[in-house]
Amino acid sequence: MSTTRVVVLGFAFVILLGALLLTLPISSSTGVSVGFFDALFTSTSCVCVTGLVVVDTGTAFSTFGHVVIILLIQIGGLGFMSVAMLYFMLLGKRVTLGTRLVIQESLNEDRIGGLVRMMRWVIFSALSIEGIGALILSTRFIPIYGFGKGLWYGVFHSISAFCNAGFDLIGNYQNLMPFQYDPVVNITICLLIIIGGLGFAVLQDIKHNRSFRKLRLHSKLVITFTAILLFGGTLIVLLVEWSNPATLGPMNFFQKLQAAFFQSVTLRTAGFNTIDQASLLPATKMISVILMFIGASPASTGGGVKTSTMAVLCLNVRMVARGRSEIAAYHRTINRDTMQRALAIVMIGLAVLLIDIMALTLLEPQANFLDLAFECASALGTVGVSSVGTGTLEPVSRMLLILAMYIGRVGPLTLTMALGHKQAQTKDAFRYPEERVLVG
């Protein structure tokens, strides 16, 4: 079995296992089993680190259910291979070549050397960052919910934020809106989301090369494009929603800036919200769809078509506009294979998004078109924010969202290659004669 198929089927297995666990009576807060379809949707949203919900996480599930949910989020965020690596590390077993190849695919790395060491570093770093985040958040939750519950809330929301999941335990579908004016909660959650969304390869590069000039080209592109999206998104949300009485209108300047920045960060596939998504103006929802489609970075805890993918396409446009023959950035040339892969990822992602939107408009004729586009982009980008209310959608519509979340997590190109009969590992045996085609 190819490594791509192992990754695709591995995520599917974890989703089904999680759904079965969430249907157990012990997972429900009332002792009555949650329906399998609702459990399947919740499990998919957890493993795909999305955050869309059809039942309220804080009130519908018991403590056991919450533990299952956070474990599924952790597995989904770090990749199911993290569990395999923990197994090897704890039992002292040797990592086989086949396992290394699957790790390579799950981390989206182009080399096999040092992968086991990198995976160990990924696990250790993730747990350390989540631990620090949990301690900081606990200082705000403990005074409100008590020591035990406040500490658990700190751990849960820290893992959920670092893994870009967006699940919360506040209850009654409030998410983090009760803390919209709390700078400690807002800043901590934002930092966890950003760090988790940069990608482990970038984090490791920053650790070894503390100067931006010494970083690899991939890291430079990710950091630059991430900064452009974050601050550009903040500025647009701030300007458009400035006088909206249902969102930023009643806030002072600092509160508006904080809420706009949080909104821009959470659209990077996180799914938390401190303002009502249904009350956003159409222009904000439109830019949100674009940001959600782009998503986080490769080998991160987030989804989307990825920042570096869009960066390569933008550089390609610049190359054509300047009449050059090579794609270059930071005094480095990007090969055409990378550009072709980026184009394939975006085209497949756009196709899935448009098909999903078209299907939902047929299934939900009473819903607003922009809200449905918002929902589809949120699912495919594994974001988790909703302006229409996922629980109000028809069962068939929810099934389409499950498929969109799954495709968004494993990656459009990975899924396409896994479903294909074979992958192009060698050069073509022959070439057809070239002929010019007019475009534009």
Described by its quaternary structure, the protein is single chain
Indicate the low-confidence ranges by residue numbers.
none
Shape: globular
Helix content: 55-70%
Number of helices: 18
Please outline the major beta sheet.
Answer: 2 strands, antiparallel
Protein structure class? mainly alpha
Please trace the helix and strand order, writing H or E for each element: HHHHHHHHHHHHHHEEHHHH
How many strand segments?
2
Radius of gyration: 21 Å
User: Could you give the distance between the termini?
Assistant: 42 Å
Give the helices and strands, then pairings.
Layout: H1 3-22, H2 36-47, H3 57-60, H4 63-78, H5 81-91, H6 97-107, H7 115-145, H8 147-162, H9 183-198, H10 200-208, H11 217-241, H12 253-266, H13 282-294, H14 307-321, E1 327-329, E2 332-334, H15 336-363, H16 369-380, H17 395-410, H18 412-419
Helix pairs in contact: 1-2, 1-4, 1-6, 1-18, 2-4, 2-17, 4-8, 5-7, 7-8, 7-9, 8-9, 9-12, 10-11, 11-12, 11-13, 13-16, 14-15, 15-16, 15-17, 16-17
